[in-house]
Design brief:
single chain; 400 residues; alpha/beta
């Protein structure tokens, strides 16, 4: 193993957890601060209310245009989790009300908990609705024959898959999923939270609903959107003033909407160049890690369909929690390969669905890049890794 000094310059940090939350973009911050200084409720008819409404309308129009959708398709939410909940639960309920034969939803085994847990909750509700889990192969990709089998009886109202997996970066083929779903009249939803800015978003010929969130692309936490075609039969998710087609009531947030529009504009307009840049940094991470530790196992091969901003690697024999702590101590912000709920690291259902055992997944590390990432971040990680890895393996040998 190549030896590199463990500690960088005092106070210097490498932020390599953009898949969790990226840094707020100046344009989004400026849009938010400017709009938040205006008084008035966008639903009010007086002058201040109309001024706030104009800010909201401009933001909604821009978001729709950037996504190739119509403004009436937008259901603004508090984030990706709420958008996913509405997409799965409200659609399952609405479709069943319209056609009692539609009693099931189908979600991918590697989907984010916002999708998977919602489907499981539907399954346990005191209702006829059930959930079907779609298996994946060792690359985290849907298995076409299994998808066809799950949809064959026509009972599935909505099939869902993340365009980019939040843990491994695996990219699903939505045209293939649409081709399987359309003959059965099944609606197609994708959680594109991790995809915006990193891969091309799907054509609306292939999907019917798409979930997005702001804090993954440089907007503040607290704003997201479900884009849903008007013919999708969404049941009411929350009652009140009847805003947003009666699906989700509540006063819309003009400042957050303006910030999301600004962040989305920058993210999409710079996508190709930024994706090329981040793929280069990811390649530097891969090569550096492989040079430092030849036993390291990358979860996805370089030629597997994947986004350019996530490097997921397993260090055999290392204790994952210890590795995270030791890297943090040495100036690196990163994440475990396992899912994280309420700040508690848990065994990863994503890796398990890909056929990786809990024992094999020990020592997993997710490094994710974003718009502020530089070669210096890569250097800091590679400098900190050898010593952190040695100590994490010492802990791992004690706990095995």
């Amino acid at each position: 193993m190549v030896s590199i000094p463990a500690h960088g310059p005092a106070g210097e940090r490498a932020y390599l957890d953009h898949a969790a939350t990226t840094v707020m973009r100046p344009a989004a911050r400026e849009a938010f601060l400017s709009a938040s200084g205006l008084p008035g409720n966008p639903s009010s008819v007086h002058t201040s209310g109309r001024r706030a409404r104009a800010v909201l309308d401009d933001g909604l129009e821009e978001i729709a245009a950037l996504l190739g959708a119509k403004r009436s398709w937008l259901v603004m939410t508090s984030g990706g989790t709420e958008a996913d909940n509405i997409a799965i639960r409200s659609l399952a309920q609405g479709a069943h009300a319209a056609d009692p034969w539609r009693t099931a939803v189908a979600v991918t085994a590697t989907d984010h908990p916002a999708v998977r847990s919602t489907a499981e909750a539907i399954h346990t509700d005191p209702s006829p609705l059930t959930a079907r889990l779609l298996p994946v192969d060792h690359r985290g990709l849907l298995i076409p024959e299994q998808v066809e089998e799950a949809l064959a009886d026509g009972a599935v109202s909505v099939v869902s898959t993340a365009l980019v997996n939040n843990e491994t970066g695996a990219v699903q083929s939505l045209p293939d999923l649409a081709a399987a779903a359309r003959p059965h009249g099944t609606w197609v939803h994708t959680d594109a939270v991790q995809a915006v800015g990193h891969v091309e978003l799907p054509a609306w010929d292939h999907i019917d609903l798409m979930s997005l969130t702001g804090h993954k692309i440089g907007a503040p936490v607290g704003i997201g959107v479900l884009v849903a075609k008007p013919e999708v039969p969404l049941a009411t998710a929350s009652t009140g003033g009847g805003q947003q087609r009666g699906i989700r009531s509540g006063t819309l947030d003009a400042p957050l909407t303006a910030a999301l529009a600004a962040a989305l504009r920058e993210t999409i307009s710079h996508r190709e160049a930024e994706n090329h840049r981040l793929r280069g940094l990811a390649q530097q991470l891969r090569e550096g890690i492989a040079r430092l530790d030849p036993t390291a196992r990358f979860t996805l091969a370089e030629d597997a369909p994947q986004s350019g901003h996530i490097v997921h690697v397993v260090f055999p024999g290392a204790d994952s929690d210890s590795l995270l702590f030791l890297l943090d101590e040495r100036g690196v912000d990163s994440a475990a390969g396992s899912a994280c709920s309420a700040g508690v690291t848990q065994a990863s259902p994503v890796l398990a669905a890909m056929g990786i055992t809990d024992q094999e997944a020990r020592g997993a590390l997710r490094l994710s890049l974003g718009w502020t990432s530089t070669e210096r971040d890569v250097e800091i990680l590679l400098r900190a890794l050898p010593d952190a890895l040695e100590k994490a393996r010492a802990v791992g040998s004690l706990t095995r």
